[in-house]
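Service request form, structural biology core

Requester: graduate student, group of Dr. S.
Request type: structure prediction, single chain
Budget code: on file
Notes: please return the result as structure tokens.

Sequence provided:
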Amino acid sequence: MNKLKIAVLDNGVDEKLLALCGLPDIIQQNKGNISDEEDLFLHGTNCAMIIGLNCADAELYSYKLIDNTGKGNVDDLKSAFDWCLMNNIRLVNLSFGTTHFKDKGIIRQLVNQYANKGLIIIAATANSGYTAFPASFSNVIGVKAKDTFNIDAEGLRDKGVDFAAPSEHKIWFGGNDITLQKSNSYAAPYVTAMAGRLMMEQSWINNVWQIKKHLYQKFRGKCVQYIPDWIEKGWIAGKVLKSKAEVYFEVAAKEEADTVILYDKNEFNEYREKHIVYLGNEIAEQPDTQCFFWSRRNRKEQILCSRIKKESINIPVILIKSDKEQDQIWWLTELRKCFEAEGYNAYAISTEQESVLYDLEYIPFAVDEDISNKIGDFLYWQTYYNQSDLIICGIQEKESIGVEADIFVRIENGKKQTGIQIYCDKIKKTQMCFGTLGEQQIKKVYDCLLTILTEDEDEE
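Core staff response, request fulfilled:
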């Protein structure tokens, strides 16, 4: 059996300690851009030991991506991934990540790009319990610590974590047994080892989604993607998108695309070798393929399974109501950018299915009562784990969020102008009229919203 190359992207590996527990030397070490200090923080070494002891036929490689305080730079990830591909390494262990919302887009773009080049990334989620990047992404196998190896269904719904695995491993050092601490960092390399063994047993497996599906089937579980965040290059079939906002991925020709966006479920069989995002109105079953699939049914399932919230949502809620003539998705993406520029993490919600293509949160409001009753629970946990500072929700006439709004924005189309009214506690705070709508006009609306929000903070 050929040995499998596995890279540990961490703070380096102490080969003397590997030898003490009977493991072979690292095949190649790369120090990246991190200074060569004495390693008093054995994080990478421990990860390498766990992989080596649980996947005997692995050839271990090391790339120093974080320093000995556990800190690193997101920008160095690309160099590390390039190094892996240059050395024909397909399986990567990342026992670290970030929970900062501003890092999300950069890391997602990198992960999707390299996943489509065949890189398989196993990542530990944050020990803080918050949503972590890249562990939460569909193109990554996210892991948290638990006593046994199994599916983490609750973690997948709440923060994109796929599996729970043991982390308190016993390691033999020259006659002494040492037990590692409970940590998500040491659960991820165990799953990396299991993925490595699977890849050696099943040589046809060559990408992350095949490994995910195989491991889920092993535990008799269903591999569901609740957020279609995996797209690097997407092809949109048959329709022109409604919004003028930019989608989060590159729009490509059908032949180049890793994902097709379909509106007709009868076309599924034609694209069995590609991932599918289905935005049609008919209910569709997930096709039996080795690729990712998303439809509004996935989001409904996620909402229905939400745990009961512990308390009321305690962050500001801005409700924006408009008619069908307004570009709701554009409004939401532009306002979110404004808040992000000021350091605020806005959880932006739309009732349009198409919104998932713009990295917005799709909520199917016009549905049955069971879903409506669970939206509050869903939003509570999502905004908690994402550490959101506020909610911005775009709805149309006769729709309801199911959560009380702190600020209400009414957008009305006139013959020549767009009228905007902003209310707080049912009191009209301001009214604006614009002949044209662009970034400058959105900024004026944002400035007004921020003034109202900060006034409330000052009063407290």
